[in-house]
Amino acid sequence: MAARTAITTLRFDPRIRYLADLAARIQRRNLTDFLEWAIEEALKTIPIKAGDNPYGDNDEPLYGDGPGTVVAGRKTVSTFDNSIAARSHELWDVDESDRFIKLATKFPHLLDFEEQQLWKRILESPLSQTKDGKLDVKLVRKHWAKFNSEAKG
After folding, report:
1. Residue-wise pLDDT tens digits, 75-108
2. Domains in the chain, number
3. Which residues 6+ apart lie within 8 Å of 34 measured at CB?
4. Which of 21, 66, 105, 120 is the most exposed place for a label (fewest CB within 10 A)?
5. CA-CA distance, 80 to 149, in Å (whole number)?
6. What is the DSSP string of 100-118?
7. CA-CA distance, 15 to 2, in Å (whole number)?
8. How many other CB atoms sit within 10 Å of the CB of residue 62?
9. What CA–CA distance (Å, rounded) separates 23 from 53?
10. Are 80 and 116 within one domain?
11. Domain limits at 23?
C-alpha cells in the first residue's frame, strides 16, 4: 500500500521558520500541519487559467496579484472560482499518467521543459493513439513507463 503522505524536504530562512513555528503554536498545530494548512489556504487565493495563453484568452480570467477579483475582457470573476483549490478536480488524479494528461491538455502553459518533451513524445507516438489518430488515455496509462523512460533519454 502506498504512503498516505509524501515526504518533502524544505529549506526556510531561519526567521520564516521561527515565525511559522510560532504561528503553529498559536493554532495548536505541529509545524507540518501548520504548513499543510497554510499551503491549502494559499491554493484558495492563487488563480489558475486554462488554455495555451496565460494572459487572458479562452474567456478565462487573467492571473491576479492576490486575492480579490480579476478582470478578463468584460467579465469580472472571483479569484476563488478560478483558484488552484477550486479547480483541483481538473488537476489531480491518483494515477500519475492521468494527472499529467490533465495538466498537459488543460494547462499546457504550466508544463516545464521536460514535461513539454514528454507530452510531444506522447502525442507523436502511435502507442498513445486510437486507430483514427486520437489520444487514448488508456493507452497512455498502459505505456506510461515507456514514455517516461524514452523522454529521460
Report:
1. 444 444 789 999 999 899 999 999 999 999 999 9
2. 3
3. 20, 23, 24, 27
4. 66
5. 38
6. HHHHHHH-GGG--HHHHHH
7. 35
8. 16
9. 38
10. no
11. 13-43
